[in-house]
Amino acid sequence: MSKLIIKNLYKRYENKGKKKTDKNEFAVNNLSLECEDGEFIAILGPSGCGKTTTLRMIAGLEDITAGDIYIGDTRINDLHPKDRNIGLAFEDYALYPPLTVYDNIAFNLKAKGVPADEIKRRVHEIAPLLKVEDLLDKMPVSLSGGQKQRVNIARAIVRRPGILLLDEPLSHLDGKMRQALRTEIKRLHNEIKCTTVYVTHDQLEAMSLADRMAIMNLGVLQQFGTPMEVYDDPANEFVAGFIGEPPMNILKTTIIKHENDFYFTFENSELRILCPRRYYDLLKDGMQVKMGVRPTDIYVGGPDSKGTPVKVAVFEDLCAERRIGVRVGEELVMMITEDETRYRQGEQIKLEVNGEKTHLFDLETGNRIRPKK
């Protein structure tokens, strides 16, 4: 096992058509992370956020513009990829068609001159972990996508790397196979205890697999924490809207003071939500901010509810849960309920919001507004 440390990492691609004053000048912009021995880290973000570029710099496949990468106490910036003790599995399986599964897994060991007996022992040790022990004599052309990816990952970890890098390994698989292989990757990590960095744009993959997640956008690290920390305590509007399915509802609101209390109010809507008292020192009458609330913290009120009457705009029955969309002004607000009641479009319900679970974001920067300690 090895500790991975990234310090003030930058990557800029030379592009003659791009001005130096462009906002997104760097593909990776001042990234710092620490991944502990045996930890599973997910780098998560939309396309173009810099996650794969970061992985390729760790692997030595991209030059570093500035900053440092350490594995343990060793600075690896100038080490050749083969000398970094890294296992790498890409989204493309890249198996060698003329070779059997056994020879594909053993390829790197043979290239390093590992004795045949040791190669055989390692391949037969790793094959059951990836459930490919019955495929060793087969050719890649006869394998399914899931089987090819298992072989791809087996080839990466048979080298016993200090760091295992996985770049969108499930992206080419169908939904059912993705779920099955995701479970296998988690089980595998728990067995081999290899420090792992997993790149994905799929938040479900990241939250189900990772000990901690690094959320990136436009090359910049937005937040680094456990899945629960990121979900419950987002650092900014981007993270709040990116994590969660459906994502957090984020609405522009005007703070109104009535007697001794503050309320969230919304344009063209009768909805009023009592502001949590922890924010009172920050609030002013007429202040405009963005208010965020998770769909699970919005409810359909009962017959005696004092909630705001609204009409159902969207209803989705997913069996395990139901999703209801209503209009608050011009914005569509989603809620999740386990209530088995089916609603029709246009049907009136009473909307209740747990004000204590709301989050505030700066209208201009999108940064989280936090209560004073």
UniProtKB/TrEMBL annotation:
PROSITE patterns: ABC_TRANSPORTER_1, ABC_TRANSPORTER_2. GO terms for cellular component: ATP-binding cassette (ABC) transporter complex, substrate-binding subunit-containing. Gene3D superfamilies: 2.40.50.100, Nucleic acid-binding proteins (2.40.50.140), P-loop containing nucleotide triphosphate hydrolases (3.40.50.300). The keyword Translocase applies. It comes from the Bacteria. Residues 4-243 form the ABC transporter domain. Keywords: ATP-binding, Cell membrane, Membrane, Nucleotide-binding, Translocase, Transport. Pfam families: ABC_tran (PF00005). One of its GO terms (molecular function) is ATP hydrolysis activity. One of its GO terms (biological process) is carbohydrate transport. PANTHER family: MALTODEXTRIN IMPORT ATP-BINDING PROTEIN MSMX, TREHALOSE IMPORT ATP-BINDING PROTEIN SUGC. This is Carbohydrate ABC transporter ATP-binding protein, CUT1 family.
